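Human: My hope is that you can spare some time for a protein that puzzles me. I am handing you a single protein, as its sequence and its fold in token form. Could you go through the record with me and say what the backbone is doing? Take your time, and here it is.
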Amino acid sequence: MASPQKAREFGPLQRDVSIIGQGTWNIDENPQRSDAIAALRRGLDLGMTHIDTAEYYGWGAAEKMIAQAIEGRREEVFLVSKVVPQNASKKGTIAACERSLQSLRTGYLDCYLLHWRGQYPLEETFSAFEELRQEGKILSWGVSNFDEKDLDEALSIAGEGKIACNQVLYHLRERAIEHAVLPWCAEHGVALVAYSPFGHDQFPDPTTPQGRALQSVANAHYATPRQIALRFLAREPNVFPIPKASRVPHVEENGKALEIELTKSDLELIDTVFPRGRKPRSLPMI
């Protein structure tokens, strides 16, 4: 059997990025800090080199943990952080990026995102991103929690080929982005990064019909339901799930998801028991 594809081109970047990455939201709250750091390092060993964080995550605490985890291995990592909207003026974005670089103990970010839309015009934030990129402090930039109207506006300001990714909520029970956001990103060559791919405390209980269906697919592949969920999300060629795993066994479980080849009947069953539903009025986010 051929080795599973573990990386793919990330939006307009001429660079492959690990399909399954490592999210770090609330990772700083893990009572065993050493476990979380060990999990991040084990993820790197397994090729999960896309590490996502934000200044908002513990207000620098998560970034400082990541700095420890990637010490001596920075060149392996596709490192992403984000600026919060209240800091997203031109000057504020540049200052926030400098703080993140200091917390992460690195000279550059591979990608820098606007965490969600706020009061500052996108022109200001994008101007700061471009200045940071020209100075080599970030190599690319993108957005997060943008619906298709936000993306249209962003594209009209930045032009094609500038927006590296859009990071959005995407899991089996929340497939709203499939209506318009995912197709928009595919059309414009923008990577779609799926945060909370297991749902935030919403993963199907094994005693429910959804949980039993997921388990049946997992049994057929000698896999776990969480591996099946990740593989389903990663079925689209521009999607990059970033599950959080603060313990080594969990990150090892995540890392094996790409070894699974879902069949047409698997996909149809998952699609049936986890329906896309109607398009919501606004993009879901947490």
Q: What stands out?
A: The chain has a mean pLDDT of 95. Residues 141 and 168 are 15 Å apart (CA to CA).
